[in-house]
Amino acid sequence: MLVSIFKWLKGSKGATAIEYALIASLIAVVAITGMKAIGNKILNQLNNIAANLG
Predict the structure, then answer these.
(1) For 15-33, how does the pLDDT look when each residue is reduced to its tens digit (9 = 90+)?
(2) Does residue 45 belong to any structural domain of this protein?
């Protein structure tokens, strides 16, 4: 029984480390792009507030 489990684990297809790295890098690129866009909007709002206060 143990031999059959090892054969199943050896033959099973799964995501490799390279695929996980590609997925992680894609998530990182999307997160960085989103943060930049949000950061620019926040910066513009803070500049508008500073201009109206001064």
Answers:
(1) 677 888 899 999 999 999 9
(2) yes
Q: Is residue 8 part of a domain?
A: no
Residue 6 within any structural domain of the chain: no
Total-model pTM: 0.56
Domain that holds residue 27: 15-53
In Å, what is the CA distance from 22 to each residue of 16, 17, 27, 34, 36? Answer: 10, 9, 9, 18, 21
CA quadruple 6, 10, 13, 19: dihedral sign: positive
